[in-house]
Amino acid sequence: MEITDPKDINVSNDIGLLLAEVDEAVGEFAALGDFSADVLDQMRREFLPQRLSDTLNIEGVGVNPRITRAILEGLTLAESDRYNDQEVINAIRANDFMEGHAREGAELTPRYVREVQGLVTDGLLRTPGAYRETQVEITGASITPPPPVEVPRLVQELCDLSVEHGAGMHPVVLATWVHQSFGAIHPFPDGNGRTGRLLQDWILVKHGHLPVGIPASRRAEYYEALQSADEGDYMPLVGIVANSELTALERATRIAQAPNLRMQRIRDLARRSQLTVQQREYKQYEVWRRRSEGIREEFQRWARELSSELPDLQVRVKVWDPISFDKWQEIRERGQTKGTWMFTLVFTVRKTPIFSWLFYARRHELAYTFDYEPMETFHGLVGIFATGDHEPNPHWDFGQFSDAYVSLRELLYVSDELYAYHEQSSDDLAASHEADGLAVHLLSEPKWVSSKDVAVGDEVERFFEQSLLKFGLIDQG
Hints:
Elements: H1 13-30, H2 37-58, H3 65-72, H4 85-103, H5 110-120, H6 151-164, H7 171-185, H8 192-206, H9 219-230, H10 235-271, H11 277-309, E1 313-319, H12 325-334, E2 341-349, E3 352-363, E4 369-370, E5 382-390, E6 408-414, E7 417-423, H13 426-433, E8 448-451, H14 456-470
Parallel strand pairs: 4-8
Antiparallel strand pairs: 1-2, 2-3, 3-5, 5-6, 6-7, 7-8
Helix pairs in contact: 1-10, 2-3, 2-4, 2-10, 3-4, 4-5, 4-8, 5-8, 6-7, 7-8, 9-10, 11-14
């Protein structure tokens, strides 16, 4: 077996954009400065129980954050929970060892690798920290680990390459490579998954990122991404780690800012006796979130059923992390911000990806549209915008996107009515607005035209019909 050289990993355009968001978020988090002991303790209690439970759950160990938190805080467990307490204790000790050395800037070495695995399997294996002495297979994997005699050389090579490329690669990509390469070597008789995720986090922490592990909720996606990485495509696994890093940074930032925000809110609450503006906005956010999920689910249903009916077409749907209330408020106030991707549709025709559509959240732009209602009707409304580009490396246009075939540009709820905004040709616009007396020069920059009180299903059907026409899968009816 030979380890893939990490410098040979090619980062796709969409993952590159995601990594740029990570860089920006890491910079903003670092700019918050040093944190108080209370804040650091809060972050540990907020993140560690879930992360350790996730890594154990992935391996089939039945614990939850409550049990992990109880052991972490030295509490006595109920008898029914005690059968897994050694697993949790080991995970805590191994994590503390990893974070302590990584924050000191220590590089990975075979000795450190063995120590991490030894802590993970302490009391569970006869010889924790010892390399395996027999040939093994990984259930469900497409690769076979190397013979035992090759393990020491390969672990040394992995550590050497991680040091060699430590300053030249994006930490998330390097961490992902360490994770996958370690798993492919499978150096130990047990504990390889937990150890591999800790080594991933070692690289992240050493380079100023937060440790994220792998969410147990993404277990199936994680195994598929590992399979892809084993076959040379690291991007799905990089995407999981990068998205987890963004989510963790957003949560950690809220915790770090909480003391000041809490004081501000205490003072504010003292002046208010009725329903707060934030409470009203949160109710609006919940309505927006449910309606947005309904739109996304309708696109998913159409994508799934079209893919099953058309042999030449596959439409893959990628769902991004939900937009939080804080993020939604930021969009309303600033118009747009980072981390607003909602879902993507990748059209594959005859097994070749040819085009991707991205749907993202943004504040409604009056400058893009022909709307005659009062401006306050649209104040602060967040719409679902569509943009697209050709595969394999799409470059997203987040402005007034244009496409000659597919006209949908935005879906927007105004009160209880769904507005659909479509791009029309200049000839169509001129004809439709001639009666309004619009000057021809006003049409030099085409604006989007709305249809009001439309049905979600009708708009999704129109979108897919135009997409199939664009890709030559149907004729103009």
